[in-house]
């Protein structure tokens, strides 16, 4: 099995004295794991950081066995954010969530596009936290667990949607949800419209919302917790008063 594809590095770990096992999110082939010869070298280490954009040339003699890959860096990658620790934390969180949630060798071009859109806005610190939440919502949709925020689950109205049912993932209006507000998840306006604007607490509400469904529908099924890198990101955002 041979292919060449655009990809993002999701994770890498040492293998032997000089190699590395690398997880890739490819545009057309989904999440792939490959051996990279020389992955432990000083030249390759910057390329193998979570979130690095690469061109991957993959080769395997037997389709269902671990193959090898040659990686060519595209752009500056995570090195562009060495003076922005929050952005690096977000990149690591997005990569770890994608690596943990996506099945191996199953095409998910929507996940690649969502990751690409997120990395494109990382230079804008006022924008990327909201886009990160949208990335996780897009990942849920790609995996078949899309949130239905189009209308109220109880009344059908499209107005004043401020809650989400934690069981169904469907929006709930203010009037219908008020009696059960403590049991519902808050729906930040920016998930309904790009013009929704950001208020204090909206990012926190968004992270809680997508995190709930990632945990319940994706990671719990694999008997795994949400990735530590995501928890670390929330802690750093809270310390920076960005939630």
What is this structure, in a nutshell?
The protein is an alpha+beta fold and 243 residues long.
Structure write-up:
The chain is of the alpha+beta class. The protein has 2 domains: 2-77, OB fold (Dihydrolipoamide Acetyltransferase, E2P) (Beta Barrel), CATH 2.40.50; 83-149 and 187-239, de novo design (two linked rop proteins) (Up-down Bundle). Helices cover 32% and strands 21% of the residues. It has a 5-stranded mixed β-barrel. The protein has a 3-stranded antiparallel β-sheet with strand order 7-6-8.
Q: What are the defining features of this structure?
A:
243 residues; alpha+beta; OB fold (Dihydrolipoamide Acetyltransferase, E2P); de novo design (two linked rop proteins); 2 domains; five-stranded mixed beta barrel; 32% helix
